[in-house]
Amino acid sequence: MGLQIKGSLPYSSLGHFPLNTRKGIMKQSRRAVVAGVIVAATATLGVVAAESPAMAAYASCHTSNAVITIKKRTCSTASVHANAAHDIRVVIYACKNSPWWVWDINTGRSVAHGAGSGNKVIHGLYGYYKAKLTDGCKGDLIALQDY
Questions:
Q1: Which of 4, 17, 28, 136 reaches 20 to 30 Å from 83, CA-CA?
Q2: Domain residues for 36?
Q3: For every one of its 147 residues, what pLDDT tens digit does the chain have, with 9 covering 90 and above?
Q4: Does residue 129 contact residue 80 with C-beta atoms inside 8 Å?
């Protein structure tokens, strides 16, 4: 129970009022109700979060932060797993002749490549994939998404 001083009434650890007074009991009851509401709300949010669909995986890079090697601007995305339909979308905003490619990180096999801007969906994928701009202009961007 709470703090008790010899010759006094027992005090609640939650407040300043003695437990056996009307104010002490009411204050303790209100706190118990508030604590119950908080626990119920937290549990409800946990269920809602567990049942909500997962966010789509997304990875991108742009050549303004790129490593410049012998006058070439390159960047690579993080890896993205193909979605349940075995697709990945690649979006490229790049100069006309900026080459890019997408590959399977386990096999090293290219699954798509091109130059310049584009937006395409690659089908029939099962693993993890990365994308790279190999000789981009400043400000080029490539992104992968398991939409």
A1: 136
A2: 1-52
A3: 444 455 544 544 444 545 555 555 555 556 666 555 565 555 544 544 433 345 568 888 888 765 666 667 888 999 999 888 889 999 999 888 889 999 999 999 999 999 999 999 999 999 999 999 988 888 889 999 987
A4: yes
